[in-house]
């Protein structure tokens, strides 16, 4: 058809009958669906925003540092169905929950590495990296894993404290990243009442690595 001429008012509609829109639909996992145990978990609204800012594709390779219950890892693994997600966690209770959630959601493309963030052996490059908190040495942590981020890749970090916010933004700017910060406050009704209960405000930081 590219060699033919048509009126400027023509409209062409192509329909692929082999594609199921239901299968292609992107769905996010709710907090209630995750098995938590006693481990901290990135809450649903923050999780959705953070994952969205990671710019994930079906074949992306993703690293989740300090994975906790694995909520970010599991959600990323469902989106990156043709890629790979690596969850790094040191806490034994959290690791047990990650393995249970991995089995529940059948995420065979999720690889779990047990170890401390600064000393664990993590190999290869990643399209996107998520850091959900810090047990200290935040600047060193960011510098280490930014070396594993591909050019044009995104690193997303979540923090509660202003101190960690400053350290993270300052470190990323020092590395020459394009940096943005979003502060999110979420309140929800409690039970069947109209009373709102507020969660802690969260800082979502996104850093984009320059090409080259």
Fill in the keyword field for this structure:
212 residues; alpha/beta; Rossmann fold; 9 strands; Precorrin-6Y C5,15-methyltransferase (Decarboxylating) subunit CbiT; S-adenosyl-L-methionine; cobalamin biosynthesis; transferase
Please tell me about this protein's structure.
The protein is α/β, with parallel strands linked by helices and 212 residues long. It has one domain: Vaccinia Virus protein VP39 (Rossmann fold, 3-Layer(aba) Sandwich), CATH 3.40.50. Helix content is 28%, strand content 25%. It is built from 6 helices and 9 strands; from the N terminus they run H-H-E-H-E-H-E-E-H-E-H-E-E-E-E. The protein has helices at 21-24, 44-53, 71-79, 92-105, 138-146, 162-174, and strands at 61-65, 84-89, 110-114, 126-131, 149-159, 178-184, 187-189, 196-198, 202-208. A 7-stranded mixed sheet has the order 3-2-1-4-5-9-6, with helices on both faces.
The CATH topology corresponds to Rossmann fold
Order of helices and strands: HHEHEHEEHEHEEEE
Q: Could you tell me the strand content as a percent range?
A: 25-35%
Number of E strands = 9
- Give the termini separation: 39 Å
Shape call? globular
By CATH, the architecture is named: 3-Layer(aba) Sandwich
**Rg:** 20 Å
**Uncertain spans, ≥5 residues at pLDDT below 50?**
none
CATH homologous superfamily annotation:
Vaccinia Virus protein VP39
The proportion of residues forming helix, as a percent range, comes to: 25-40%
Averaged pLDDT: 91
The level 1 CATH classification is: Alpha Beta
Tally of separate domains: 1
Tell me the major beta sheet: 7 strands, mixed
Organism: Clostridium mobile
Protein name: Precorrin-6Y C5,15-methyltransferase (Decarboxylating) subunit CbiT
Pfam family, one: Methyltransf_31
Keywords: Cobalamin biosynthesis, Methyltransferase, S-adenosyl-L-methionine, Transferase
């Amino acid at each position: 058809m590219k060699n033919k001429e048509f009126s400027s008012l023509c409209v062409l509609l192509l329909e692929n009958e082999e594609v199921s829109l239901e299968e292609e639909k992107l769905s996010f996992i709710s907090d209630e669906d995750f098995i938590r145990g006693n481990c901290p978990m990135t809450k649903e609204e923050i999780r959705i925003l953070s994952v969205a800012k990671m710019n994930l594709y079906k074949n992306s390779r993703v690293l989740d540092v300090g994975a906790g219950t694995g909520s970010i890892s599991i959600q990323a693994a469902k989106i990156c169905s043709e890629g790979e997600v690596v969850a790094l966690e040191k806490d034994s209770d959290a690791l047990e929950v990650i393995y249970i959630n991995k089995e529940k959601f059948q995420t065979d493309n999720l690889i779990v590495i047990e170890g401390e963030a600064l000393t664990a052996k993590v190999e290869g490059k990643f399209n996107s990296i998520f850091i959900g908190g810090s047990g200290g040495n935040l600047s060193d942590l960011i510098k280490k894993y930014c070396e594993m981020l591909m050019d044009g890749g995104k690193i997303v970090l979540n923090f509660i404290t202003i101190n960690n916010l400053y350290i993270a933004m300052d470190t990323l700017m020092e590395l020459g990243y394009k940096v943005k910060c979003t502060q999110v406050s979420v309140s929800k009704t409690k039970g069947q009442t109209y009373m709102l209960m507020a969660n802690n405000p969260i800082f979502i930081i996104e850093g984009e690595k320059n090409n080259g």
